[in-house]
Specification:
The chain is an all-alpha fold. It has one domain (2-104): Domain of unknown function DUF1476 (Major Prion Protein, Orthogonal Bundle). Helix content is 80%, strand content 0%. Helix 1 runs parallel beside helix 3 (66-78) and helix 1 (2-40) packs across helix 4 (85-104). It starts with a helix and ends with a helix. The mean pLDDT is 91. This is DUF1476 domain-containing protein.
């Protein structure tokens, strides 16, 4: 029975580690996405930092990526930047790849 218990603990530990890594990748991606949008809006470095934090916070509104896509698309439109939802989602995907690369070195 000890082997089974050890195996169960190992799976639980791996699951916890994987979940933490996924959370960190998502948080980093959201920050990079906010920085990308701030750059498009030509914000100052201080405004960029604040905006990136706001994008990270916006992700806690609902499950999935719809909340941050909606926020960034709305802010870009308000700033007079003409990008469609597909372009914003493509940028989000690019930031996902970059965040993963930064945290685990895999694209």
């Amino acid at each position: 029975m000890t082997t089974f218990d050890d195996r169960e603990r190992a799976f639980e530990t791996k699951f916890a580690r994987d979940e933490e890594l996924a959370f960190r990748i998502t948080a980093r991606r959201n920050r990079l996405f906010g920085e990308w949008a701030a750059s498009a809006m030509k914000l100052t470095p201080e405004e960029t930092d604040a905006y990136a934090k706001a994008v990270v916070q916006a992700d806690f509104e609902e499950a999935g990526d719809e909340d941050i896509v909606r926020k960034v698309l709305s802010d870009l439109t308000a700033a007079g930047i003409e990008l469609d939802e597909a372009a914003v989602r493509a940028a989000l995907e690019a930031q996902t790849i970059e965040a993963r690369r930064q945290l685990i070195g895999v694209a």
